[in-house]
Structures are given as structure tokens and as C-alpha cells.
Design brief:
alpha+beta; Pdz3 Domain; six-stranded antiparallel β-sheet; four-stranded antiparallel β-sheet; 16 helices; 14 strands; elongated
Length: about 550
């Protein structure tokens, strides 16, 4: 027994001297086992299961698993052979054919390596989970891995071809899509800039998701483009307790910073969306004007044939100043005044034409289709409209833009709960015509709307819609669930509430992995449902 303990201590000292960085690369909340404790490493069909025994050597506690064949450096998990690669390689070849078992010392290197493989290398689900709860990005991918030239050319060519196709069909759709891409880029710029200003280390800045098409490294940051331009991400080291970092980089991790700095970095993306919307609204209001009530009712089309309006000579473009002796300011007031009259009544109507006021006295007729029915009501015969773009000064435009952002954010909060309602989703998928107010939609549907609005109203309509979309994305992104930024903000607030003056609490985000997976599954379901509705039942 004494000889076994001496060998265990010797192996532990050897591992400490050989791997000073791995010795300290561990989460702070995980206590290290004592060096003299033993473990048993079971090798079965290329899989290593390392189990740690307690002091009494009776109770086994599973530390983690990893696929032996999946990693070439798997001999690191066995301290007795970690400095003898030939033995480790021979062992790996042998273990593919038969099961085996061997003893090893439970020391820092073994513990940290197994924990790292458990959360980073071995399991695809674990890697995806860590990317979701950790803010995106893959720490195992670096710009040193060369991208085939054919992959870059084909991928970029497909993206450019799609943009050209959008522009050929509707130039305003292309403008709207490019505006969305710029908004996503500025969202990540907000995270990137605030992280650098607060002393955090950023390692990746990518546009898009999926396979890499372009990658280059400047300083310590890897920039690049990925295949699917449906988003972007910035990777900040140490987003949670699952993110293993080098000891010298620990002061620059996200988790090591103060609560105000973490909250600033994590909310910078949504704040950037609010700033974009504010600037777009203010720019449109100051140049083209704000779309709202003009204070007058204008006749939109020619009067209905055979109506009282046509009989007295009302023309398209006339401004209705008063009806039946009551001043009219909105189209709603005009409709209500006409509805209060009875068929056959003669009323005075004051209209403005070419700067001159004209007084007309039409006799109201019966609304078509209601003759000889109890629902018969008066009919004038024109369609009045009182909404248009009203020019504003720079100061008024800024104030109205701020109000518009607040109102749009309020409507966006309501819209999120309406869209996420499972009842509404089921009804929209099963009905012949989905309700445009409750149906989920994707970038495809939003681009369709942007293209049609651009055709009718031009650049001011597209920019107004783009501002509204930015507000919605900013609100939706702050949902207090991972992987949204609001989920990271909620974790930061929770840690702040649990911390004391002498002890800082750090949440274990691995417990949130099932919730995060469920949220992602719901998002995928909404994406598929919205894409199906956008294709089968387009909004326009």
C-alpha cells in the first residue's frame, strides 16, 4: 500500500511539473481531488470512462466520458502514459478491438482534462449547448485551419447570386435585405465595442452561421464570413463557468468583470437596435415627414357614380372642411358624421378646391345594398383620407422619433406574446388564410412587405419599416431566456442578487441547458412555420 501511494505521489508531481497550465485551468467552483486519491479508468470499445473514488475508496463518482477515437491526444487522459505517446497510441489501437481496464492516479491533469473533454470535445450536443449558452462561436475553430478555395468561391458566389436575384425582382426588396444585414452587423459592433472598452477579450467576430467561407485574423480577433447570412456573433471568452480559459486570460473574461460592465456588454446589441431605429425615424420625419393625421380630409378617388357627391360636383383632390355644419379633421370623424344622417337629408358641405372654399348642398342617398332594409343608412359617395407624411423640424423629428420608438416597443412586446401563442400558431397553420396580425413570419415575409411598401411609398416607407423591425428585434432579443442576450442579462442579474460583499456567486449555466434547448427548438418550429406560411400564403 505504501509503495502504491509513493508511486501515486510521484506521478502527481510529474504531472504538475509537466502541465502547469492544465493544473489551474479549471472552474473555480469545482474543488480539486486530493493527489493521493486513486481512480479507475475503464476502456471499452474506444470509450474512456474515468471514475473518481472518495476517500474511503468505496463510492464511485463519475467525472466524465469521451470518445477515445475522436481525439488524437486522448492519451492525455491517462497520466501514467501521458509522457509516453508510443504506449498511448498502441493502447488506443488495442482498445478498438477489445475491452480493457487500467489504474491511474486522480490528479489535477486527469481531472481537468476529462472535464474539458466532457464539455468541449466529446459530445456534439455538449458543444452545441455550450455555444448556445456561451454566446455563440466555436473555440476549437481558428483561422489557422485553411478554408478550401472552392468552398469560399462557391459560397460567396451563391450569396451574391441570391442578392442579384432579389434586386432583379424588386430593387426595394434588395434594399430592405441589405438594411437588415447592416442592422445585424451594427448589433454585433455594439457587443464588440463595449467588450473591448470594458477590458474583455474578444476572439471571434463572424457574420453568418454555419461553415466558414472567409476567415482572417488581426491581432487576437478572428474575423470571417459564414455560409448562412441569417445572423452574426461575437465570441467573448469566459461567458460562463463552462468556458475554459487560460489562467493568464482570466482577468479579461466576461465572468470576471463587474455587474455594470457585464450588463452593458450584453445589452449593447439591443441598445444599438434602438439607436438605429431612432436615427431612421428621425431621418424620415425630418426629410419626408411623419406619416400621421394631417388635420384635413382629402377626397382620394372620383365620387361614386350616381351618388350625391357626384351630383353636386365633388372632385378628386378636394379637401372637405366641414360636413353638416361640423368641422372635419380626420377621416374617422367624416365617416361618423355621414353615418349620423338619414337618407334623403340635405346637408351643407364645405370643400376647398385650388385654395377656394365652396359650399355644396347635396341630398344624401341610400347606401348601396341596404335599400328596403331596416339597416338602410345615408350615403355620400366619396372616400376621404386624412393621413399623409407631415413635414417636421429637426427638433420635432427627434422628439417624435423617440415617441415612435417607445410606441413600437410597446406594440412589439404585445406582438411577441401573440406570435408565441401555440393556439395562434396552430390556427394559422390549419386555416386556409393565416391572420397577418398573429401569424409568424421570417425574413422572407418581411422582405416581401418591404418590397411592396417600397413600390408604393419609396425609400421613406422602406426606412420606416426597417426602423420598426429594428425595434422588434431589439425587444425580442431581450427575452430573459438563453440563448438570447436577455438570458445572459437575466443570469447576470441573478448572480448579482445572490452575491454578497465577501463572496461572489457564479451560476451554473449547465442547469439551463435543457431550457435553452427547448427555446431553440421553439425558435426552429417558429422559423419553419413562418417560412411555410411566407411561401404558401405570402402577405402580398
Amino acid at each position: 500500500m505504501a509503495r502504491t501511494l509513493r508511486r501515486a505521489v510521484w506521478f502527481d508531481r510529474l504531472a504538475r511539473a509537466a502541465t502547469p497550465r492544465l493544473r489551474d485551468a479549471r472552474p473555480r467552483d469545482v474543488p480539486l481531488p486530493r493527489p493521493r486519491l486513486h481512480s479507475r479508468s475503464h476502456w471499452r470499445l474506444g470509450t474512456c470512462v474515468v471514475e473518481r473514488r472518495q476517500r474511503n475508496c468505496r463510492r464511485r463518482v463519475s467525472v466524465g466520458t469521451h470518445l477515445l477515437v475522436a481525439d488524437r491526444r486522448s492519451e492525455r487522459c491517462h497520466p501514467a502514459t501521458s509522457r509516453r505517446p508510443a504506449i498511448a497510441q498502441r493502447r488506443r489501437r488495442t482498445l478498438r478491438r477489445r475491452d480493457g481496464a487500467t489504474n491511474c492516479t486522480q490528479h489535477r491533469r486527469n481531472f481537468c482534462t476529462v472535464r474539458r473533454y466532457r464539455y468541449r470535445v466529446t459530445n456534439f450536443y455538449s458543444r452545441v449547448r455550450d455555444e448556445l449558452v456561451g454566446g455563440g462561436g466555436d473555440p476549437t475553430v481558428t483561422s489557422g485551419n485553411k478554408i478550401p478555395l472552392s468552398t469560399s468561391v462557391v459560397g460567396i458566389g451563391v450569396i451574391v447570386a441570391l442578392l442579384v436575384w432579389l434586386g432583379a425582382n424588386n430593387i426595394w426588396t434588395l434594399v430592405f435585405v441589405l438594411g437588415l444585414i447592416v442592422s445585424v452587423f451594427l448589433h454585433e459592433i455594439g457587443h464588440f465595442t463595449t467588450a473591448r472598452l470594458t477590458g474583455m477579450k474578444v476572439t471571434q467576430f463572424y457574420m453568418g452561421f454555419g461553415p466558414r467561407l472567409l476567415a482572417w485574423k488581426r491581432g487576437e480577433v478572428e474575423y470571417g464570413l459564414r455560409a448562412f447570412p441569417i445572423g452574426a456573433f461575437v465570441r467573448i471568452i469566459g461567458m460562463n463557468n463552462l468556458d475554459d480559459t487560460d489562467p493568464q486570460d482570466e482577468p479579461r473574461t466576461y465572468r470576471s468583470k463587474s455587474f455594470p460592465r457585464r450588463l452593458l456588454v450584453i445589452t449593447a446589441g439591443s441598445l444599438m437596435h434602438a439607436i438605429i431605429a431612432l436615427l431612421l425615424f428621425a431621418g424620415v420625419f425630418a426629410t419626408a415627414g411623419r406619416y400621421g393625421e394631417t388635420g384635413s380630409v382629402r377626397v382620394m378617388d372620383a365620387p361614386y357614380e350616381g351618388s350625391s357627391a357626384a351630383a353636386v360636383g365633388v372632385q378628386e383632390g378636394d379637401i372637405i372642411r366641414s360636413f353638416a355644419g361640423v368641422e372635419v379633421a380626420t377621416s374617422r370623424e367624416f365617416v361618423e358624421l355621414v353615418g349620423k344622417q338619414q337618407p334623403g337629408d340635405t346637408v351643407d358641405v364645405v370643400v376647398e378646391r385650388d385654395g377656394q372654399l365652396l359650399t355644396l348642398s347635396p341630398t344624401l342617398t341610400v347606401f348601396p345594398g341596404t335599400e328596403d332594409t331596416p339597416e338602410a343608412r345615408a350615403f355620400f359617395g366619396v372616400a376621404g383620407w386624412s393621413r399623409d407624411y407631415v413635414q417636421l423640424s429637426a427638433g420635432s423629428a427627434a422628439v417624435e422619433a423617440a415617441k415612435e420608438v417607445v410606441l413600437t416597443a410597446r406594440d412589439s412586446v404585445r406582438g411577441v406574446f401573440v406570435v408565441l401563442n401555440p393556439v395562434n400558431i396552430a390556427e394559422n397553420l390549419t386555416s386556409e388564410r393565416a391572420d397577418p396580425l398573429t401569424r409568424p413570419s421570417t425574413v422572407v415575409g418581411a422582405s416581401q412587405v418591404g418590397g411592396e411598401i417600397g413600390r408604393e411609398e419609396g425609400w421613406k416607407g422602406v426606412l420606416t419599416l426597417l426602423a420598426a423591425v429594428n425595434v422588434f428585434v431589439g425587444v425580442f432579443n431581450m427575452l430573459p431566456l438563453l440563448p438570447f442576450d436577455g438570458g445572459h442579462a437575466a443570469v447576470a442579474v441573478y448572480e448579482r442578487l445572490r452575491s454578497t460583499r465577501t463572496r461572489r456567486y457564479q451560476a451554473d449555466v449547465s442547469k439551463l441547458a435543457p431550457v435553452t434547448t427547448a427555446v431553440v427548438a421553439l425558435l426552429v418550429m417558429l422559423l419553419v412555420a413562418g417560412l411555410y406560411l411566407d411561401i404558401t400564403q405570402p402577405l402580398f
